[in-house]
Amino acid sequence: MLAAPTFHAELDWSLIRIVSPIATEQVEALMNELDRGESEAIILALELEADLLLIDERTGRDVARRMGIRRTGLLGVLLEAKQRGLITSVTKILDRLVAQTTFRIHPTVRAEVLSLAEETEEV
């Protein structure tokens, strides 16, 4: 498991709240294509008029795009964190994710992400 970043303790956890979508029938309809978690996340993004939805699964991203929801995945979060100086190496994090979790990334996508992060493969 990945260690928590050092800024973890500085976060204001009182801002975190657990919510469920109101439109349960819309969640059920999306479950023809997606699992419950993705379906609820998409409907909540619509209900809350979220600025951004964090979703990684291809089908979920496609459904969110069809519904006009702005979205990103873990790779987008890592690139943003690097740009803001919150992390120093996308490469190291990707290596740890692949080694220690079920996370997988296609070599072409990895190369593109590292290029955007202005990093090269560590040998």
UniProtKB/TrEMBL annotation:
Pfam families: DUF3368 (PF11848)
InterPro entries in the record: PIN-like_prokaryotic
PANTHER family: SLL0658 PROTEIN
Entry protein name: DUF3368 domain-containing protein
Organism: Candidatus Entotheonella gemina
